[in-house]
Design a protein that fits this description.
alpha/beta; five-stranded parallel beta sheet
C-alpha cells in the first residue's frame, strides 16, 4: 500500500466526506443513515460509491458493453433510491455525491480514498445473517489491510433502525 495521503477535511474549502458503498444489501441502509447522521452533526457530506465488478465473460465486447450499461442504470437507480430515503428521513440538507467505478470493489474503494483527500470515514453496514458480517467488512475491516487502512472504518450493525442510530450518532 502506498503512503497514506493527508486528509484535508479541516482545511479551508474542504469538508468531511463519509464514504458509503452503494449496493443492494439490506445492511446498506443502516450505513447510509449512520453516515447521514454523522454528516449532519459534523457539517459533512456523503459520498456514495457504486462499483461495477468485472464479469467472467468480458472478452465479448458486446456483452461487456451491455453489462456496463445495465450496471450503470442500476447504480443511478440506487442513488435515486438512497436520496429519496434520506429525504424521507429528514436529511434533505445532507449533500450526497455519487461515483461509479469499474473494478474489484476493495481496490476501487482504496483508489477513491487515495484520490479524494476529503474522505474521512468509510461507513459499512454489517450483515445480520449467519454467513458473517459480509464480504466487505470481512476483507477491509478484518482482513490483511485492516491495520494499514488509510482512514477509519465505521461498521454499523445492519439490524439498527434509524431511531436506534439517532440515539447513537
Amino acid at each position: 500500500m502506498a503512503a497514506i495521503k493527508k486528509r484535508r477535511v479541516f482545511e479551508e474549502g474542504h469538508r468531511r466526506k463519509y464514504l458509503v458503498i452503494a449496493d443492494e444489501s439490506q445492511e446498506v441502509e443502516a450505513a447510509l443513515y449512520f453516515a447521514a447522521l454523522r454528516a449532519a452533526h459534523t457539517g459533512g457530506s456523503i459520498l456514495l460509491l457504486y462499483v461495477i465488478e468485472p464479469q467472467e465473460y468480458q472478452h465479448w465486447v458486446g456483452v461487456r458493453q451491455v453489462q456496463l450499461e445495465e450496471e450503470t442504470a442500476k447504480a443511478k437507480a440506487l442513488f435515486r433510491l438512497f436520496r429519496r430515503k434520506l429525504n424521507a428521513a429528514g436529511f434533505e440538507s445532507v449533500e450526497t455525491e455519487e461515483v461509479i467505478r469499474e473494478g474489484k470493489k476493495a481496490e476501487a474503494i482504496l483508489e477513491l480514498i487515495d484520490e479524494d483527500e476529503d474522505i474521512a470515514v468509510l461507513t459499512l453496514g454489517a450483515a445480520t445473517d449467519a454467513m458473517g458480517p459480509g464480504p466487505l467488512v470481512s476483507s477491509l475491516a478484518a482482513g490483511k489491510t485492516a491495520g494499514t487502512f488509510p482512514i477509519p472504518i465505521t461498521i454499523v450493525p445492519g439490524n439498527l433502525t434509524l431511531e436506534d442510530l439517532q440515539a447513537l450518532a
